Amino acid sequence: MGHDRDLTLLPKAHLHLHFTGSMRPSTLLELADKYGVRLPDALTGGEPPKLRATDERGWFRFQRLYDAARSCLREPEDIHRLVREAAQEDVRDGSGWLEIQVDPTSYAPLLGGMIPAVEIILDAVDAASRETGLGMRVVIAANRMKHPLDARTLARLAVRYADRGVVGFGLSNDERRGMARDFDRAFAIAREGGLLAAPHGGELTGPSSVRDCLDDLHAARIGHGVRAAEDPRLLQRLADRQITCEVCPASNVALGVYERPEDVPLRTLFDAGVPMALGADDPLLFGSRLAAQYEIARRHHAFTDAELAELARQSVRGSAAPADVQDKLLAGIDHWLTS
What we know:
The protein has 339 residues and is of the alpha/beta class. It has 15 helices and seven strands. The protein has helices at residues 25-35, 56-70, 76-92, 108-111, 114-132, 148-160, 184-192, 207-217, 232-240, 249-254, 266-271, 283-286, 290-301, 305-317, 323-338; strands at 12-18, 95-102, 135-143, 166-172, 196-201, 221-224, 244-246. It has a seven-stranded parallel β-sheet, with helices on both faces. Helix 6 (148-160) links the parallel strand 3 (135-143) and strand 4. Helix 3 (76-92) runs parallel beside helix 5 (114-132) and helix 6 (148-160) runs parallel beside helix 7 (184-192).
């Protein structure tokens, strides 16, 4: 009995999904056609591309594919479509709350500037949320390959829209470049403005990058964080402070952070009491969405239904969802487990 409940029916929160990376492959092909964009072959084969990001060349290639996909989003209607479809996919996977992560900088030139870009994105999120019933908010993320002053500007902008659906401030791209502490002012601005600090760390580099996120950026959540498994004292610290790690198993394997699904240290984190929120990261490039991450925990790590329910609870508790939304989702999780 313990292993047969439908994981798409398990209520959960999705805290690690990138904007462009949430696109349906079929939508990417249609948009490329619409704008006459010649996509790299890796994006047109109907299969997820073969990726590795453990060396500079691999990461560069991953970024190039991501940028090619992003170049197909050109008009407000494309943004609306992307967000609506991301919401539909999440609902299909049992998500009751989605925090989608975006760096508006990359869309600004096409959408008339930073402020119009943010407003179009937030309008799209509002519309998709109303249409699908999915609770949906935005994490605005700075790019650690750019200048820290750009991140400060972005943090100020994010804070301005805290009452319009922005709940967090992130830091993404190759964590081997740019020190976390260079972005401490940007994160201070975001935190003072009431936003959750949720930088990436502990994916391509080891435990030290997670410690830097805690020490220098006062992270409330860590994007990925899996490499903390290599440092028992760090695990203890994450558990004691209940810092949620947004763990993306399929992504870790696709990018070569771990060789096989069973190598992702889900058990190590879970047994240490570190809260996790499983996430899909970039379904467009990695080929699997939210429920599939729970399948990995079940199939490759022998998580029981009770443990999978606990993972779902951790995702809800780690979210920025208001108390009444959290209560409803948690009740739904209990119901899934007892049914």
